[in-house]
Amino acid sequence: EVIVSGKLRGQRAKAMKFGDGYMIKTGHAGQVYTDMAVRHVMMRQGVVGIRVSIFLPQDPKGEMGPKIPLDDVVTILEPKEEPNPETLIQQQQAVEAARLAAQEAAMAQAAAAAPVEAAPVEAGF
């Protein structure tokens, strides 16, 4: 995109835009992908400004353009394999049964190791 502004023809100043193709101007992508230069030319009638903006191509190596892809680039990934719900339920039941068996074994071992003493019963509150 080229913008020329100033006294182009006549006494009144004007600005003319010449653009072609795809140009992002806003956001982070606009800052990263756009290379811009401004020059001022001193003419007899006054100053003419020239602004040139070039949209850079995406370069994975980062030599000729930015490494990051544009926001509108979509990559489709293969879906993950979902486990069968029946096998998940069986695994949960097996884990629960093992946990209960471990608790019962620990309680039986604790009961065998320490004899139970009768606590005195208090009358009243």
| Proportion of beta-strand residues | 15-25%
Query: How is the main sheet built?
Result: 4 strands, antiparallel
Order of helices and strands: EEHEEH
Placed side by side, the strands forming the largest sheet appear as 2-1-4-3
Question: What shape does the CA trace take?
Answer: rod-shaped
First-residue to last-residue Cα separation: 92 Å
Low-pLDDT regions? none
Q: What is Rg?
A: 39 Å
**SSE class:** alpha+beta
Number of helices: 2
Number of strand elements: 4
Please outline what is shown here.
The chain contains two helices and four strands.
Could you walk me through the main structural features you see in this protein, from its secondary elements to its overall organization?
The structure is a single chain. It contains two helices and four strands. With 125 residues, the protein is of the alpha+beta class. It has a four-stranded antiparallel β-sheet. The N and C termini lie far apart (92 Å).
Keywords:
single chain, 125 residues, alpha+beta, rod-shaped
Task: Set out the fold topology.
Layout: E1 2-6, E2 14-18, H1 27-33, E3 34-42, E4 47-55, H2 85-113
Antiparallel strand pairs: 1-2, 1-4, 3-4
